[in-house]
Specification:
heterotrimer; A mainly alpha; B alpha/beta; C alpha/beta; A: mainly alpha; Non-ribosomal Peptide Synthetase Peptidyl Carrier Protein, Chain A; about 35% helix; B: alpha/beta; Peroxisomal Thiolase, Chain A, domain 1; 12-stranded mixed beta sheet; two-stranded antiparallel ribbon; 16 strands; about 20% strand; globular
């Protein structure tokens, strides 16, 4: 798993879901995101999807969001790496916190 | 002393089948769907592209001061009064003290959206007076106020905005007001117009099906949004007979309860709606056994339909396998705050005609739900006496009413 | 039919947290305001009352849930906790069967604005699911129910400036007709600059002048609009039986509620149908066996609006047949319009709190002939509380001493 991607995901999770006072690096790579200590629910999952789509310019497929993908930061990072524009897994530069504006 | 029986003496509706109760019933009874590709605005960038829009509704920029929701409400209210044999204005000497009890979600949101866009982009910019009027018409109380003003209502006017349970809750308030003599006559209903905020919002929750909604079907994947208005005239039966008006049906019970489970997802076991239904039955002084069919909330979302089916199985036990269930949303889509009002009319029409209208939607009923869903053709039920109508809302508000056939 | 009493009051508002803070503010009659900037318009910034800037709500909100709550939901849940504490109740078995009725004039404008910004400026796919779930007017009621696990009937009233008294009426109805023994009645509103700007453009708000400070001046000859407020007040309503059974302190009784509509009102202003409103009110009071001769206080919803206060004065004058009115207090001059401050002030008045004449009052308007009472008053025995809306709705309540 790409450490930089994991760190970016953790920051995105904290910012998007307004987890005030939670340090991103305190989220474990293998910590269950849902049904665990973070107290995230189905709406948080959808919210994350919107944020991921904008931040990483990927499309999350229609229909039910597969819960397995969102189980941990690691599972999310793995899923994302396979879908990022550059085949080698190089990252799209971070947009600095504000989602890219689509035309 | 027992409280007076409250009759429904008139109703009016605007729906995806057009203006009037007649096209509404024709469409429902024939099992047709009023769900089509949406045309109100460009749906290209939305996840889904269907809705049940009112055909022939005036374009937003030609509306002047009244919003589309206001206009739907006025059309429905006027039809209801005419149906009830009442004059167009409810003032003057000898006029009944009339209350108006509406449910709504959107008010003038559609009209405001374009203006909001301009305001957000340039907050200090000039606003045309008419635009200002539209923005200010945005409160959900708009349709109730517009109807009260046009019809010269003099009694209590209130709007409930509890998402999908709004209009059904309004019935509860009106029922009590009539029983206690707080008002002589009540107009109950609601109006909602299709707008971007709700369309984008429900799509963001992935709660909207890509095909026309399929209530209680195995393959269901979400709701379809609808629009329109419905207004019913209610009064004590004795008062109706004295003035020579025939009851079209009776509102015999209302109940409400909260899930306190989650902000959007219903309690999977339908706990809140079960309590609401039990309260409505107790209010009607009848047992669950007396219910002949159910006009369910039936949005077509996986969770709602499952929760509601769970409630129906719990309430009716083994009998549920033979208790006709339908969802008007299969035909009309989900009218949000006003859903309960148009569904009440649908329930009354079913009682009058001795027919339970079918639930449009592709695919077989979900066997896991174990319901007797009416599909394909209307189900003949000539002896049907009591219909139950249910609504489960965002935020866990639940409401139910029991309607009785006239005669 | 059960008698209805108020046994607790929680307030989140410009004066801070808790009913005592509001009581102190009302006793002085000076509003607490902050300034708002809006959109670069070429006029001085206007004042508003901003609960969120003065209150630290964190300790009152369920950990973890607060992050998804809109500002009104936070106000409402915090006020709920304060109300329950005030009533000597805890969440759990005390609240499991509780009904919840909320009233809000504008719903959650910040959330709505954010959502519309996303949809209209960035595109529909930018819509936030979390914001959408908070954008419904009943989100506050839903959050209250979740916070205290209340499973009774719930409804949210959105009927403009009368939302507070209609919510009170519907809450009382649930108890009177036996559906609930206990109901929480919440009134909540939130200010955002765009709302302020809109109301200002409609000329609804008090304006600054060179020669006098910007103030809400109920009944004043030079009144020119109301002061926008935000916050939440939550009342605990109970049947008298339930209150007595647990030895609760009763703050006041809710004797009656009456509502009416004035069809002469344009959509965003008050009308001129004072006589008709007074007639409907009189009949309503008579049928509920309340005589105007028993009313020794008017807690008026006059807010400083030109036509609203005129209509209010016309209704009162007609109701009393042109005779002298009992003493009138006008708390909105201090607590502003919206956000529950008015309903809380009414309860406080019945509980014995003094409501000073608003600091902005200078001169009686001869056309109205009403002025907020200056000087001390004994606790009222029976008060008529009024809330007339722009757009035509009118609502009243009769509150009585404990």
């Amino acid at each position: 798993m790409n450490a930089e991607l994991a760190a970016r995901l953790k920051s995105l999770i904290v910012a998007t879901l307004h987890l005030e006072g939670k340090a991103p690096d305190s989220i474990g790579d293998d910590e269950p995101l849902f049904g665990g200590g973070l107290g995230l629910d189905s709406i948080d999952a959808l919210e994350l999807v919107v944020a991921l789509e904008r931040e990483f310019q990927v499309a999350v497929p229609e229909g039910k969001v597969d819960p397995e993908v969102f189980r941990t930061v690691r599972s999310l990072a793995d899923w994302l790496s396979a879908r990022l524009p550059a085949a080698t897994g190089e990252l799209v530069p971070a947009s600095g916190g504000s989602p890219a504006t689509r035309p | 002393m027992s409280s007076p029986r409250i009759a429904v003496t008139g109703y009016g509706a605007v729906s995806g089948f057009g203006y009037g109760v007649e096209p509404l019933w024709r469409g429902l009874a024939a099992g047709r769907s009023a769900i089509r590709p949406l045309s109100r605005f460009d749906s290209t960038r939305y996840r889904t592209h269907l809705a049940s829009e009112v055909p022939g509704a005036p374009a937003a920029d030609r509306l002047g001061r009244l919003s589309l929701a206001d206009r739907f409400a006025l059309a429905a209210a006027r039809e209801a009064l005419a149906h009830a044999g009442l004059p167009e204005r409810l003032d003057g000497p000898g006029a009944p003290l009339t209350g108006l009890y509406f449910g709504g979600s959107t008010g003038g949101m559609l009209e405001s959206e374009g203006i909001f866009a301009a305001l957000l982009a340039a907050p200090g910019g000039a606003l045309r007076a008419r635009d200002l009027g539209h923005l200010a018409a945005q409160p959900t109380s708009g349709p109730a106020d517009a109807v009260a003003r046009a019809l010269a209502v003099g009694g209590p006017v209130q709007t409930i905005s509890s998402a999908c349970a709004s209009a059904t809750l309004a019935f509860g308030n009106a029922l009590d007001a009539l029983r206690t003599g707080e008002v002589d006559l009540a107009l109950v209903g609601g109006s909602d117009s299709f707008c971007r905020l709700t369309f984008a919002g429900f799509n963001s929750l992935r709660a909207i099906d890509g095909v026309p909604c399929r209530p209680f079907r195995a393959e269901r994947e979400g709701m379809t949004i609808g629009e329109g208005a419905a207004v019913l005239v209610l009064e004590p039966e004795e008062r109706a007979r004295r003035r020579g008006a025939a009851p079209r049906g009776y509102l015999v019970g209302a109940g409400a309860a909260c899930d306190a489970h989650h902000m959007t997802a219903p309690d999977p076991r339908g706990g809140g709606i079960l309590r609401a239904v039990r309260a409505a039955l107790a209010d009607a002084k009848i047992d669950a056994d007396a219910i002949d069919f159910v006009n369910a909330h039936g949005t077509g979302t996986p969770h709602n339909d499952a929760a509601e089916a769970s409630m129906l199985r719990e309430l009716f036990g083994g009998r549920v396998a033979e208790l006709p269930v339908t969802s008007s949303k299969g035909a009309l889509g989900h009218l949000l705050g006003s859903a309960g009002a148009i569904e009440a009319i649908a329930t009354l029409l079913c009682l009058q005609h001795g027919l339970v209208h079918p639930t449009p939607g592709d695919g077989a009923p979900d066997p896991a739900l174990r319901l007797d869903l009416v599909v394909g053709e209307a189900r003949s039920l000539p002896s049907a006496r009591y219909g139950l109508s249910t609504n489960l809302a965002f935020g866990g508000a639940n409401a139910a009413i029991v309607l009785e056939r006239a005669g | 039919m059960s008698e209805v009493v108020v046994t607790g009051l929680g307030v989140v508002g410009p004066f801070g947290l808790g009913r005592e803070a509001l009581a102190q503010g009302l006793a002085i009659g000076e509003p607490r305001t902050v300034e708002v900037e809006h959109g670069g318009r070429n006029r001085p910034v206007a004042a508003l009352l901003a609960a969120r800037l003065t209150a630290n709500l964190t300790a009152l909100l369920p950990p973890g849930a607060a992050r998804r709550m809109s500002p009104p939901a936070r106000f409402a849940v915090a006020a709920t906790r304060l109300a329950l504490a005030d009533a000597g109740l805890a969440s759990g078995s005390d609240t499991a069967e509780c009904g919840i009725v909320t009233g809000t004039a504008w719903g959650p404008p910040w959330v709505t604005e954010q959502l519309l910004s996303q949809i209209l400026l960035k595109g529909p796919d930018a819509a936030s699911p979390a914001l959408f779930t908070e954008s419904v007017a009943n989100a506050s009621a839903a959050q209250m129910a979740l916070a205290i696990q209340a499973r009774g009937p719930t409804q949210t009233i959105t009927q403009r400036e009368s939302s507070d008294l209609i919510a009170l009426a519907e809450g009382a109805r649930l108890i009177r007709n036996g559906r609930c023994e206990r109901v929480l009645v919440g009134v909540v509103d939130e200010i955002v600059p765009i709302l302020h700007s809109l109301l200002d453009r409609l000329r609804a708000l008090a304006r600054p002048h060179a020669d006098r400070p910007e103030r809400a001046r109920p009944f004043d000859a030079r009144r020119d609009g109301f002061l926008l407020a935000e916050g939440a007040s939550v009342l605990v309503l109970e049947s008298l039986r339930a209150a007595r059974a647990r030895g609760a302190t009763v703050l006041c009784r809710v004797h009656a509620a009456v509502a009416a509509f004035d069809p002469s009102a344009p959509a965003h202003d008050w009308g001129s149908g004072g006589i008709a409103l007074a007639t409907t009110l009189r009949h309503g009071l008579e049928s509920r066996e309340v005589a105007t001769s028993e009313i020794d206080r008017i807690i008026s919803g006059a807010s400083g609006s030109r036509r609203g206060d005129r209509l209010e004065a016309a209704v009162l004058s007609a109701l009393w047949n042109g005779r002298e009115l009992p003493p009138v207090v006008a708390p909105k001059g201090t607590s502003g319009e919206y956000g529950g401050g008015f309903l809380a002030a009414a309860i406080l008045a019945l509980a014995g709190s003094p409501i000073a004449a608003p600091a902005g009052f200078e001169k009686i308007d001869p056309e109205l002939g009403v002025r907020p009472h200056a000087g001390p008053l004994p606790r009222p025995k029976r008060a008529l509380v009024s809330a007339l809306s722009a757009g035509g709705t009118a609502a009243w309540a009769v509150l009585g001493e404990p």
